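Field reference: sequence -> structure
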Amino acid sequence: AANPSLGANALFALAEPAARLLPGWDAGIVEVHHVQKKDAPSGTALALAASFERGGGRRPDVRSLRMADVVGEHELVLAGTGERIRLSHSAVSRDAFARGALEAARFLASAKPGRLYGMSDVLKCSPSA
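Structure field:
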């Protein structure tokens, strides 16, 4: 998983129908992380962009900021003529990642072997692709 946080994975799931509901709207992603983070854009931002694309949207522009001790913030901004929608997730503690990983472990304990599972299976929101 690009991000084990349950909230981040819910954001991925919301991006797909948003793209289907708003064809032709402009989209952008702003992601913020702590100054020690090396990759830009983050794997979470790239996964969010991919989710939006799976819904039929154009590849969003991604802007990365590295600031202070920010754990992780991701915002998908959708812009139509005269209106905006913002979908966002903020991890204010790394505990969110641990909780998601524990939820995934509980899911896997009873999952059938023989296939690859993702966080969308844990949340019971299979991606459309």
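Note: The first helix runs from residue 6 to 21.
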